[in-house]
Amino acid sequence: LLVNSERLRADLQTLGEIGWTPGVGLGRTTFSDAHLAARAWFLETARAAGLQTLIDSAANHSAVLPSGEPGARTLLLGSHLDSVAQGGRYDGALGVLCALEVLRSVKDAGLELPMTIEAIDFTDEEGTLVGTLGSWALTGALTPDTLAAPRGGREHLLAELDRMGLTEAGLLAAGRDPATLAGFVELHIEQGPVLERESVDLGIVTAIRGNASFDVTFTGEARHAGTTPMDLRRDAGLGAASLVLAVRHTVMREFPGCVANVGELHLRPGAYNVVPGQARMRLECRSLDDAELDRLADALAAQARSSAAEWDLEVEVAPVGRWTPVATDGEVRAALRRACEALGLSSMELPSGAGHDAQVLVSVTRSGMVFVPSHHGISHGPAEHTTWNDCVNGANVLLRATVDLARSL
Ligand code: HGY
Ligand code: MN
Ligand code: MN
Predict the structure, then answer these.
(1) Cα 398 to Cα 79: distance, rounded to the nearest angstrom
(2) Pocket of ligand 1 contains residue 354 by CB under 6 Å
(3) Contact 282, 213 (CB under 8 A)
(4) d(CA 5, CA 388)
(5) What's the CA-to-centroid distance between 227 and ligand 1, angstroms?
(6) Which of 21, 173, 208, 402 could cross-link with 359 by S-S, CB 3.0 to 4.6 Å?
(7) What distances in angstroms separate CA 169 from CA 26, 58, 137, 197, one per listed residue?
(8) In 229-270, which ranges are E strands?
(9) How far is Cα 392 from Cα 82, in angstroms, rounded to an integer?
């Protein structure tokens, strides 16, 4: 049993054009026109293959191949069609497409499985609004608190929900009964250099890093940049500059194996001739260990306070999201390993540095991931690339593991 690789290739090429700007990358942020077009294309392609489709109240989009058995549970496959602002063609999209291809291949083969299999495209994995919003909603674990101070800002979230005809209540009500779920398997690009460096075909993910994200705001005094003496300034930009460097030093000195990033920095009012009275930063830090993630977050918040004290500023460190580090499910890992062996493909176990919907699904069902190599470990940019051969390997492993798990779980 193998996937229809020509159909998969054609679809990957078609989907990869939706939102692509040469030299810039893929722009499919949540609910952008390109994102909506990609989601519509996904459902049309599923319907054309004779699959059922559904959209839940968190706008998760699914293709479904129902089991013939009454009361059958669902084995979920999938990932996300949204991208970061100038992203690559494979992050998320490859997982959704391979999941769809698995359903089509099972249907074409006339295989009767004791489980319904569903290919899902989760809403807002990348966090333009919240981050793993659709998968979080599906677990039923979303709370009003989660939506009170999201990564994309509360006003933006409400405006986008309203524009899309969605509601907070709908998000909070999108929980699936865990008893109806047998498991979740996500195929994803590694987004790191390990598989390519080790010349291994596939990665069987053992654990997924957690993430703590913060909005940091330094406040000083906006003053005339020409007349205010240097020693009388309360320059918010100095606090921000001090913290950006301190974040790197703290992680490299005290938290080896962790990472942290300041991905955005705005100085206000933002003019050549005004000393910035405010600096706003978007900061995230990541660890594979839950307690270490808290220690790391506390250490960075302490650094923010000392940077503020150093430059006579106020500082506010506002949490805007936290994703727990998780281990993946042993049964799913075993099925993925069996699928690699059956196909004569090499595999290795490795943790994921990136966050994924699979880490959210761990809280309600057996959840696991399989990685395909990323060229030079590049992701979240237009140079993101996975060879066609590796894409087909991933799809075939997902297909075999799906049939295995549908029968064994
Ligand atoms: O940020 C991440 O790790 C993922 O790409 N959303
Ligand atoms: Mn991503
Ligand atoms: Mn992703």
Answers:
(1) 13
(2) yes
(3) yes
(4) 9
(5) 44
(6) 208
(7) 31, 9, 11, 46
(8) 259-268
(9) 22
